[in-house]
Specification:
CATH superfamily of chain B: Phosphate transport system protein phou homolog 2, domain 2
Largest sheet of chain B: none
Number of strands of chain A: 10
Radius of gyration of chain B: 20 Å
Oligomer: heterodimer
Structural class of chain A: alpha/beta
Strand order of the largest sheet of chain A: 6-7-8-3-9-10
Largest sheet of chain A: 6 strands, mixed
CATH class of the largest domain in chain A: Alpha Beta
Helix content of chain B: over 70%
Number of helices of chain B: 6
Number of domains of chain A: 2
CATH architecture of chain B: Up-down Bundle
Chain lengths: ~300, ~230
Amino acid sequence: MQDSNQTLASPSLSPAVFAANGEHHPDAGLNLRPGARGSATSRLDGAVIGATVGTVTVVDPVFSCRDVNVYYGAKHAINGVSLDVGKKQVLAMIGPSGCGKSTFLRCLNRMNDTIAGARVTGQILLDGQDIQDPARDVVQLRARVGMVFQKPNPFPKSIYDNVAFGPRLHGLVRRRADLDELVCTSLQRAGLWNEVKDRLTQSGTGLSGGQQQRLCIARTIAVMPHVILMDEPCSALDPIATARIEDLIDELKESFAIAIVTHSMQQAARVSQRTAYFHMGSLVEVGETDKIFTNPRHRLTEDYITGRFG
Amino acid sequence: MQPRSEGMLEGHISRSFDGELAGLHIRVLEMGGLALDQVRAASRAYADWDVRNAQHVIDREGELLGCGARIYDDQLTLIARRNPVASDLRAIIALAKVGAELDRVGAEARKIARTVLQQSGRPGRGTSSDARHLANLAITLLRLSLEALDRLDTEQADQVIDRDQDLDAEYASGLRRLLTRALENPSQLEVTVEAAFVLKSLERIGDHARNICEQIGGMAAQAVRVARAP
């Protein structure tokens, strides 16, 4: 079966053949019949990661990352990733556990600084300026690059103070009335205002999970960031709350660049305009989400999104 | 051994998904076998002017329609339950399109059988022989297309696409001969018109075989090809 691929007269007709360099998948000729299936992992044998497939750059990027490497001690966690994050669009990063997508996301606001033994090399430009510069104020950076985490983590403070915390810290507003307005608009943009407007003084931790996550988003956008990073923002939420957050992401992308790491491929397909597929620390493929989910170009991307390994 | 493009429908972590996709594939193939039988029986009934066989084709049409409906249901279920993407999604859509093509093949077979049942008049020997010849070509194309679908063999699919031109050419010359005969014998006008429709149906069956092969190409050709950046 495997050898049969070598005999193809017109290799481009076969999905088993890499058109780019004529390499053959040794495992491409699995038998179709039920009962005669290849093991899921065997498809990975000999699959070549190679250089990133697709266009890593965008016109007018917010983030421009080139040849980013991350080491955790001796472990090489991210391997030469180059990727842009575009304005007013959602970039979804997908891949199996441990593929480096979250690690890459955490490079974008220097969250890896907090991990002992972590070392980041390469260039990460935010609006043209290198964020890796040791002289750079990380607090300022994180005001421009907000982050929303997997588990909603509101401060144990009132709903109002949760949102007002950032603007106060960064001195964005001087007068109380301005702060009130900022809290109000942030909660409105996070789609939470109507649910909490009568209980702004109550604790943020008393809200439901979905509400807490929207509160965290309100808190993030209150400091008017350029970019919002989201690390599996819906994995602790029920489907309705998830749909609300996804709807919110869709609205927020009109104002912010958004980079989201998600384990849900369907979520990536629903919310993003670009999708990046990571595998074992490398960026395998990046492209328009429409293309990635209908017609990916790399075998690894195809196998991952169709549920052939993970 | 034939070159093959298999493996497209399987290898999922969820083995039951493999099974469901294979099930859909097999049902489409079964429908193909049925459609092929219908074409064989209908064209033979026309060439031999065999009313009983023609009726048999009509009687069996429900079976074909049932197959098509089942494939449609399977397709909906697979999409709803599995949220297929990429090659899986393309395969499911392509198989459903093949089902639709086979539906139309069945409809052409029915038209041919109806011609016999209407008893408007038996065609002359030359016309019968032309119909038989065209039917052989159409049946061959359909059979090859189903074989290609069975093995997901894009090379064979391409051959069928090429060979459809031969059928088109044979159809054109068959039609010319029919016209000549009609001019020689104007009293047989109705028979001639019916015969022209039968030839057209056979030519259409070739087109459907071709369309099936294009779907096989669509399933396979766009699948993952790139290992390195271009």
